[in-house]
Hints:
Layout: E1 18-22, E2 25-29, H1 34-37, E3 43-44, E4 55-58, E5 81-82, E6 91-95, H2 97-107, E7 113-116, E8 119-123, E9 127-128, E10 137-140, E11 146-150, E12 164-168, E13 180-187, E14 195-199, E15 206-214, E16 225-229, E17 237-245, E18 249-253, E19 260-268, E20 273-277, E21 281-291, E22 296-298, E23 304-314, E24 320-324, E25 330-338, E26 343-347, E27 351-353, E28 357-362, E29 396-397, H3 412-420, E30 425-428, E31 448-450
Parallel strand pairs: 3-31, 4-30, 5-7, 6-8, 7-10, 8-11, 9-12, 10-13, 11-13, 12-14, 13-15, 14-16, 15-17, 16-18, 17-19, 18-20, 19-21, 20-22, 21-23, 22-24, 23-25, 24-26, 29-30
Antiparallel strand pairs: 1-2, 4-31, 25-28, 26-27
Amino acid sequence: MDMGNWSNVKMPPQSPVVASASSRGSVLYSSLCEEAFRPNIPMIIPSIDRFPAILLIFMALCLDLHAFTHNGAVPADSGVINVKDYGAKGDGVTDDSDAIQEAFAKNSGSGSVIFLPNGTYLVSKTINWRGAKNRNVLQGESEQGAIVKLSDNNPAFQDPTKPRPMFHTGGAPAQRFQNGFRSFTVDVGQGNPGAVGINFCANNTGALRSVTIRAGADGKAAGVSGLDLTESEVGPLLVKDLTVIGFDVGVRVRQDLNSVTLENITLRGQHVAGIDNESNMVFARRVKSDNTVPAVVNAGRNAIFTLIDSELRGGAPEQAAIENRHANAVLFARNVQTAGYGSALKDSVQGSLPIGTIVEWCSDAPVSLFPGELKSLNLPIEDTPDVPWEPVEKWVNAAKFGALPGDGKDDAAAIQAAIDSGAKTIYFPHAREAPRDKRANNPGLGGQLCS
Length: 451
């Protein structure tokens, strides 16, 4: 498919970095810059005079559906892989493990979206992303309507010392590009103390968005962790709009590579910690925690944590909202409100901060090439981009105007006709990648285009 003459490619601007170096280690603080929150999704802005107020959503070769903020509904002819076509029932009674696993096994790495219509999908074992390491996406029709639930008192999920995830995407090498979870709920059921909701690994363009992970329907059941980011070579990846209810730990982060970005994270009812980072680089913005245990634990000698614009409430008199436990661990906090704890922050070297708002605090003294106050620039941070999402009945399929993948023809006129139809949302159904030797003049479409 030839896209014709598009213009005005926009790249995200560079964001300021504050450097810190001391005996406790060297680190670059990103100040939660705009780039840190982008899942590196290509976005092309067509000329406004040519395409006024038209949103083009591409479900093509390199689709990143997990980048969109919507309820998950897609047109029937969009090319997604519906798990019900593989035998899943979604009735809360039938074991759908094999059906969901088969949907992954037969479409792994194809760039397809594995789709969960609303319903409750009972599973009895781990769903593994076997096959290709990248371009695997699981998306529900809606966050609260599409539920994957682990069977109660499952014998395979009983040992907390050997945690077992409901979903496992695999680990190293760091080539798990464009993997994602989107718009559904994970429930580890009752009586499964060794359960982990999702063990997620993605690199560069991967993201988990609009997902709820809960320990039982009420969040009070046993469970090791909601979201595990513990595989070697995990990241860079984005986690946005995540809610974790219950578990010992809400989000557990391990390994020294390759950074994790968290935005709009809600944590409730954890038993040990809200977020526990042992040795990775974590950049977190807008974390809302309601817990009696520490909301953030930064524990290992290589651990680096940046936390800004967050609310950490609940607490207990003997606890700190944030704990920086290792003498070499590095932590930066800015505009963090705390309440209910004995202290706002406890550092293994500097001691404790009183409860209240942390205006700005760093475990290491900042350094600067220029005179002036040694603090972060505190520049505005642009949110990760959200794409408007119309009801699917208003979408228009570009193929109906003659824009067909794989035919080697110039589709610019057909795309223009779809735009001129007056529709605000035009979509390109997913098409499998043609053999590489057949694609010299047919590069396909990737990413999204919007005005």
